[in-house]
What does this fold into?
Amino acid sequence: MITRRSLLVSAAAVAVGAGAPLRAGAALPEVDMEALIKAAQIDPRRADTALTEGARDSVLLVERALQARGLLASTYVDGHFGTSTVAAYAAYQRSLGYTGLDATGLPGPSSLRSLGDGRYTVVRSISPGSIVTMRGVQVNTRTRSMLLEAERLLGRQLGLTQGSYNTGVGASAGTHDGGGALDISVSGLSSATRTDVLRRLRTVGFAAWYRTPDQGDWGYHIHAIALADTDQSTGAQNQAGDYYLGRNGLANRAPDDGPVVSPKRTWEEYQRAL
It folds into this structure.
């Protein structure tokens, strides 16, 4: 397993030339935004400094750019998008004038391209799209597309009890403040049907769990978070990372209690696999 410790030597070498972008005319390296966002969701939730598969090079390019701006110490230029890198990226977002959900440390397409000016290009860019109303709740167009595909696989329409961009709901612990969040009614659904709903949601790129009153101050429902949604609140980002790591998305971080779907794919990965 590759960890931050195994990269300290290369990080020290990076520090020497971190301040200078590539010379004019040189081909710029590429940051894979899909891989970067996956690391930005998983790595801060790890108990160690392991790296997210396929993300190392993209994370290093971003960390070098943050270091060059004096926002990240060379110790953390390691390919691990941990809490220090999150804090540095949030500081960069604030320097651009972003606030709130736009400055959580989760890279968005605009800030990522701005940071990489003269250093790297961005490929496999992710956008949550615009905010729309769907069945009485707010979602973004990426989340809507994901839900519609899950419903196509299910052969049924689902009832929505809470959407995204819905601030001030204490029982949700802020997970619905930003994009990518849904609560789905389970009224009239059998246990087998609930499990099938969860499986289909996970198949198209949601972290999804069945919630019960025994777990918190809420009724029975399905809670879903769209993986890699760059509009996510910090709470939703944490739940996405925990899902990847096999946990239940609750404060107790217990083992995942939902159906196993392998591999765990984002919406973009799901579409490429069709």
Summary: The chain has a mean pLDDT of 92.
